[in-house]
């Protein structure tokens, strides 16, 4: 990401009122020094926004990140975007490290899913 591609406004992060998968997103946004504002949805608020697709998201889902013209959904995609934009070393120093980071993200997802069952 070149400096000319970086939006100057605060990014917009949207998620439910609870932490869930967006907590890792918040941490990486902070580590990458990407300023953002958060919109939290309760109950049927998101259903209304999603059905109208007022945000223009290609795949309306939570969490989402809107950073200038970039509109991203899914926690892993947002984490990768934030790391690439601000702190690419978070994704690993080489190809093997990058695979390990992806593996750990999957393991964390599995652990979260088991805890939710």
If you had to describe this structure to a student in words, what would you say it looks like?
This protein is of the alpha+beta class and 117 residues long. It has helices spanning 22-31, 45-52, 75-86, 95-116; strands at residues 11-16, 36-41, 64-67, 70-73. A four-stranded mixed beta sheet has the order 2-1-3-4, with helices on one face.
Task: From the structure above, extract its key features.
117 residues; 4 helices; 4 strands; globular; alpha+beta
Blueprint of the fold:
Layout: E1 11-16, H1 22-31, E2 36-41, H2 45-52, E3 64-67, E4 70-73, H3 75-86, H4 95-116
Parallel strand pairs: 1-2
Antiparallel strand pairs: 1-3, 3-4
Helix pairs in contact: 1-3
Q: Could you provide a short overview of the structure?
A:
The protein has about 120 residues and is an alpha+beta fold. It has 4 helices and 4 strands.
Structural class: alpha+beta
Order of helices and strands: EHEHEEHH
Average of the residue pLDDT scores:
86
Largest sheet: 4 strands, mixed
Overall body shape: globular
Oligomer: single chain
Strand content: 15-25%
Distance from first to last alpha carbon: 39 Å
Helical segment count: 4
Question: Number of DSSP strands?
Answer: 4
Strand order of the largest sheet: 2-1-3-4
Uncertain stretches of 5 or more adjacent residues: none
User: What gyration radius follows from the Cα positions, in whole Å?
Assistant: 15 Å
In percent, how helical is the residue content? 40-55%
């Amino acid at each position: 990401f070149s400096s000319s591609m970086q939006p100057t406004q605060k990014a917009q992060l949207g998620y439910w009122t609870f932490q869930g998968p967006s907590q890792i997103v918040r941490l990486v946004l902070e580590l990458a020094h990407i300023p953002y504002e958060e919109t939290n949805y309760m109950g049927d608020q998101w259903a209304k926004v999603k059905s109208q697709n007022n945000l223009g998201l290609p795949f309306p889902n939570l969490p989402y990140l809107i950073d200038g013209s970039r509109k991203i959904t899914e926690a892993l995609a947002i984490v990768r975007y934030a790391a690439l934009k601000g702190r690419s070393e978070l994704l690993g120093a080489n190809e093997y490290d990058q695979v390990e980071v992806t593996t750990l993200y999957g393991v964390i997802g599995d652990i979260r899913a088991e805890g939710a069952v």
